[in-house]
Structure prediction request, 465 residues.
Amino acid sequence: MDMAAHRFEQHFCVRECRRVLSLLWPTGGEKTICVAVSGGADSVALLRVLCGLYPVEKRHCLKVLHFNHHLRGEESDRDEQFVRRICREWGVDCVVGEKDVAASAKGSGLSVEMQARECRYRFFSEQLQRLGSSLIFMGHHGGDQLELFFLRLLRGASVEGLRGMRAISEFPFSNQQDIRIVRPFLNCTHQELTDFLRSENLSWVEDSTNSQQDARRNKIRHSLLPLLEEIQPGVSQTLSRTMEILGVESDFLDQSLERQRKICSDFETWHLALRRRAVAKELIRLGLVPTFESVEFLVKNPECAHSCQGRNLYREKNSAALILQKETTCWNDDQVVVELKPNDACEITLPGNAALRCEVLPREKAGEISRKSDDQELFDFSAVGSPIVFRHWRKGDHFQPIGMAHPQKLQDIFVNQKIIHEQRHQLWLAEDQNGGIFWVRNLRISEKHKLRQDTNWVLRLTFLS
Prediction:
């Protein structure tokens, strides 16, 4: 073996890739595998390592998949041409997919990032089926793992989410259970991968958006992680160990879930941790991100429609299975109607385990009324009238917050208040006797229904839970 070949074989990244390959095929052998290559350093290093491990006569087993999102203009086309060129030079087949992701995101209800992911994975799925492959290799490394940990931590992820990516995991599409994603570089750093490329005299392309500080992932990469390393040297290794611990505990929870499925079919009686895990797995099966808000709503509200990342779905009672609805404009149809008159007081239960006390009090009870809390609002009862309808947001709803001269679309208010899509369909609002919205929980009250100098009767709404 010459010096270059020896150096290649001994590099840590190569040894890690070989180790993961041995987990897939303990007895050796070559099978057709697909490699996702963007043109960046990580994916180019992955392709180079695999080309080195597969002799030339076996290169037909490697199939490169590249997806052009057309999000960065000429730079996106440059990346595509770069990937095509190295594939020609290295004797590897290359399949390219493309889509105007920004345009398709506008009509999908998804963010550009989520739409890009969905388009990319759909392309991967189609090509894996066409090529008869059950494995797709990706170049995610240890740095990506840490960034993902903080992204999910800030979003409020479960133990399963905080464990991070696995070296071998299921493909995130419901009809592709037999396909697995392989990430052999999770124990490698980005620096180790670029050092490897330089030792091989290889180049790669840089994504200009990686240096922009407006993206949350980039802020974590360029600001948060260096700061944590300054505060606590070696924090990356500490977090990696934490993720490994969480991974073991997550596996135990999965085993407990499988045992629970076998001994008891009444989903509503399961331990909350197992119900949450079951629903989260269902969301992943549908290719959705299991946010806390979505999981919590679906766990606690069987047979209630819920909008999650542009998809409308619900869960039948005593079942963990999530059913995808075809309707594109769906909301939770639960509503409660309350008849009130002066001096009335009642408590109502709103679907979703929320309790609300409604009171109509005389204005002279100023002392009692003034004891207002975050879960309490006061209104002019003569402007509200009776009956009152409590329901959820529907597209097209308008609302005039206190202090504003004109009504606004409630959807625009949600955007301005940074209320995420999953929460919008869960917030309770109230209609007056004429069908006008006078209150949305966690937002300001209506201008037309506020207390005035001539208010005689006050409507007080108090959330009890």
